[in-house]
Design goal:
Largest sheet of chain B: none
Structural class of chain B: mainly alpha
Shape of chain B: globular
Helix content of chain A: over 70%
Largest sheet of chain A: none
Order of helices and strands of chain A: HHHHHHH
Oligomer: heterodimer
CATH class of the largest domain in chain B: Mainly Alpha
Number of strands of chain B: 0
Number of domains of chain B: 2
Number of helices of chain B: 8
């Protein structure tokens, strides 16, 4: 780093080398150790102090602004209501849909898993079946 | 911020108490009008509330995100605003005890405000973030949505212009 580069960096980043870009600091510290380098940094540091002066923000002023924000938020609750398609996608609305989907899946699985048996078609078996149904109907807890 | 994303107003109040002064300070440094700075601060936090879900803490700090919102709002307003005469800029109200230190501080602030009036909004933003708020070059570049090199160039030009303005004011005792 040349003294001219050092001066340019100081004019850009100010008098505190620790705030300069990391790759430049090592070389800058060596120049800062010289009288000329120290003078450059001292001059820039005085300017930095002027630039660091901030407008004074009183607590009451900040609080008033915060209060006005809350007031504005309170005035617009309806604008944040979700559209019907957004409400459908929220999890409470998905519970019945998920239950129905599970029932369908169990039904399909049972239909595939249980062996299919042809109903007997001879008259004796049909009559026997009818009596069985009645027996179940009358004998059950229902 | 997670609680603010969940629309919890208590968390939002805490967030505003902590960061509202920061937003007002940066806005005021750039627009040089306390009332307009208040409007910008309020609008910035309205955006924080409505866009909280889009904030990703893994991408950057909340303060950097807030500074970016404030700067965008500020630049939008000043772009629309008509030119304001430099004479109107930066007189500090005479408040508080008249201690010598206070007078010197007021005088310095008055000098700075007048010198800042001659800069562009983006130059004032760079000075505010780097010198007033103490952000690193990388953080300030991020908040201004600039590359590190572009921010370095902007800051260098801002300091150079400001120094020239300060010298002119000190030499002539008049406006820039």
């Amino acid at each position: 780093m040349t003294p001219e580069q050092f001066r340019q960096l100081a004019e850009t980043w100010g008098g505190d080398i620790e705030r300069w870009p990391a790759p430049t600091r090592e070389a800058a510290r060596r120049i800062a150790a010289t009288a000329e380098g120290a003078a450059v940094l001292d001059q820039q540091s005085r300017f930095d102090r002027l630039l660091a002066i901030a407008p004074e923000i009183e607590t009451a002023r900040a609080d008033r602004s915060s209060f006005l924000v809350l007031q504005r938020l309170a005035a617009i609750p309806q604008q944040h209501r979700l559209a019907w398609h957004q409400r459908l996608l929220r999890w409470p609305a998905l519970v019945p849909a998920a239950s129905l989907a599970c029932s369908v899946m169990v039904g399909v699985w049972l239909a595939g898993a249980l062996p299919y048996a042809h109903a007997p078609s001879d008259p004796l078996s049909v009559m026997s079946g009818v009596f069985d149904i009645y027996a179940i109907g009358y004998g059950s807890v229902q | 911020m997670a609680e603010v994303s969940a629309q919890r107003q208590h968390a939002f109040r805490v967030l505003m108490r902590r960061h509202m002064p920061r937003a007002l300070r940066v806005a005021e440094r750039i627009v040089r009008d306390p009332a307009e700075a208040d409007d910008i601060g309020q609008e910035a936090f309205m955006r924080v509330w409505t866009h909280a879900a889009s904030f990703d803490p893994e991408v950057g700090k909340f303060t950097t995100w807030l500074y970016r919102i404030v700067l965008n709002l500020t630049f939008d307003r000043t772009r629309r605003r008509t030119f304001q005469a430099l004479e109107e800029a930066g007189d500090v109200p005479d408040t508080g005890p008249h201690a010598v230190e206070r007078l010197i501080a007021d005088e310095e602030l008055r000098l700075l405000n007048r010198a800042m009036a001659g800069l562009s909004d983006r130059q004032r933003g760079a000075i505010a973030l780097f010198h007033m708020e103490g952000l690193s070059g990388e953080e300030a570049a991020n908040a201004m949505n600039l590359s590190a090199k572009a921010f370095e160039s902007l800051l260098g030009r801002a300091r150079s212009a400001l120094k020239a303005n300060v010298q002119k004011i000190q030499q002539t005792g008049s406006h820039v």
